[in-house]
User: What shape does this take?
Amino acid sequence: MDKLVIRGGTPLAGELTVSGAKNSVLPILAAALLAAAPVRIHNVPRLRDVTTMIALLRNLGADVAGEDTTVEVTQSGVSRFRAPYELVKTMRASFLLMGPLLARFGRAEVSLPGGCAIGPRPVDQHLKGFEALGAQVELEDGYVKARAPRGLRGCRIVLDVPTVGGTENLLMAATLARGTTRIENAAREPEIVDLATCLAAMGARIHGHGTPVIEIEGIPALRGCQHRVMPDRVEAGTYLIAAAATRGNVRLLNGQPSSLRAVLEKLADAGAAIETEPARIALDMHGERPKAVDIETAPYPGFPTDMQAQFLAMNTVARGTSRVVETIFENRFMHLNELSRLGADARLEGKRTAVVRGVARLRGAPVMATDLRASFGLVVGALVARGATAIDRIYHIDRGYEGIERKLAALGADVRRVSGDRATP
Ligand code: UD1
Assistant: This one.
């Protein structure tokens, strides 16, 4: 199993190109099943989760051809409608195949999802929506089996929580339903807007994406299209936080500052000088230690849960004490214990709040990655720690961060990937 060995203490400095967004490309790859002709997707990041989604599409019989960061999906060969446990268990986003399969082929069997171990993550809202759209849904042998032999029909769906995946699944399903669908309390994440933009390029009629009410006028068929995936705001925010923690100075290219407002505001509160242009973000700490900043995660446009671990890691070496409140997922503080191994002073107060007292320095130690974003919290800790930190189980990181050691090294970090026992420093 690969490990990442980082010798901390060097401020991150230099320029970095942000990759395409993982959370955008996954639903867009699934959405390609809806079209009647090939869909060409540009700015595709090379990630393990993308490889998994492509394997799932091929398993259904789709042809997926790719060169570099462009991928073309041809759906004409789709002859199976089942997404098997072996593939789904590693990635919760596999469940996004449900909506397109059901809408286009009238049937879908998808294993109940796995993914990051960050608390219970039900799919009840997805299922409630599919039923409202007229599908028969059953749970059998760990699979969700849904059928709509006579097609889906438009309806009103009020989500109990603004779920990102649920909104995406129902949005995709509704594009081919008879009549109009209205999704209320919809999630507003930029990735949903990106997906809707791609669906619109296929001819779908969608209004209100990016707001809590989305209306979809169903049509009989969608055509092929080309789409360029938006920049990954989580990757961008993660490297900015890492730069701030190390008192660094970085410039991000191909970023989208408009999708990162909540994070940029908090980084400014921490003392970062930030300059933005439409597709660029520059951050400079002027060599200063960050100030501790309170955060509370919330659905977009609030502070993203996917950047909580990284920001908390920055707070461990900041001046002062901070409170970090997680409101989206339970059990998303698994990085606390591992950061404590590096000398961080952070403790839980109840289930949803961490109190972090900044210390002057962390010390390198062996740690274990537990989930995708928490893993980068450990990377931030390792980058500021004195000495070497070996981070085990970095397959979690490879799910969602393209070329992590290449990108960190380009910013001056002392980082290498090693396999097995050789990693122990
Ligand atoms: C997506 C993102 C993930 C991010 C999360 C929240 C992708 C591939 N993943 O995950 O990186 O952390 O949004 O921004 O885009 N819930 C229910 N019932 C449901 C669905 C969700 O109760 O049917 C709850 C979840 O338990 C959680 C909250 O809603 O507490 C948000 O989950 P959701 O927005 O669905 O997250 P994902 O789409 O899985």
About this structure: Residues 48-60 form the longest helix (13 residues). The pocket of uridine-diphosphate-N-acetylglucosamine is lined by residues 23, 26, 92-93, 121-126, 161, 163-166, 187, 191, 305-306, 328-329 (CB under 6 Å).
